[in-house]
Amino acid sequence: EKSIIRYIKENEGKSGIIYCLSRKKAEEIATLLQANGINALPYHAGFDSHTRAENQDKFLMEGVDVIVATIAFGMGIDKPDVRYVIHYDMPKSMEGFYQETGRAGRDGLEGRCIAYFDYKDIEKLRKFMKDKPVAEREIGSLLLHEMISFAESGVCRRKQILKYFGEEFEEKQCNQGCDSCKTPQPRVSVKQEMIDLLQLIGHLKGKFGH
Fold first, then answer.
1. Are the beta carbons of 67 and 59 closer than 8 angstroms?
2. What mean pLDDT do residues 98-114 have?
3. Across the strands, what pairs with 87?
4. DSSP 3-state assignment of 170?
5. How many C-beta atoms surround the C-beta of residue 124 within 10 A?
6. Helix residue spans in 41-118 (DSSP H)
7. Which of 48, 47, 93, 96 is nearest to 75 (CA)?
8. Secondary structure E strands in the chain
9. Which end of the chain is more exposed for a tag (fewer CB within 10 A), N or C?
10. pLDDT above 90 coverage of the chain, percent
11. pLDDT tens digits, residue range 50-81?
12. In terms of DSSP bridges, do strands 66-69 and 40-43 run parallel, antiparallel, or are they unpaired?
């Protein structure tokens, strides 16, 4: 929360959206921002239609700088000058991530996207899927796996996203437009660890987990 507050304070007066997985968290973060002097409001499907419309209009008309929302917010709104999108929780899928980050900088000017990643997010998402039908759980797990791979990878973010959607990015990197290109992760040799792991798998003869 401290880093989010600091970032918003450094970009005072600019419009931004913060996405959370739950309605409760959206309200908590909005309250926290308000307590720190930030002009913010929550938005989620649990509010009545009047409150949703009022909060959305305040954001569109520059009456509020930051909306803290679930994925219920953003569909069909036309606000080209959103300067940043922050994912407080990890999105459920690459499709959702791409759609939500696409709401920043639609006017062709500055648009920054910040995503926080914690393994607690994975636990929460898996709990959400627990009572879903088997087929839906399997699809959800695959989508989640893609998001984890994206979060953990040191490859250029732009290259990864375009590849996921079937496109190729010809350049080696995005000219330091993402964290992976700005601060490349150090390479570590795990050759011996892999040899040990493969030997262990062979020793167990496929009995692990039974």
1. yes
2. 91
3. 19, 115
4. coil
5. 15
6. 49-60, 94-101
7. 96
8. 15-19, 40-43, 66-69, 82-87, 112-115
9. C
10. 50
11. 999 999 999 999 899 999 998 767 766 778 99
12. parallel
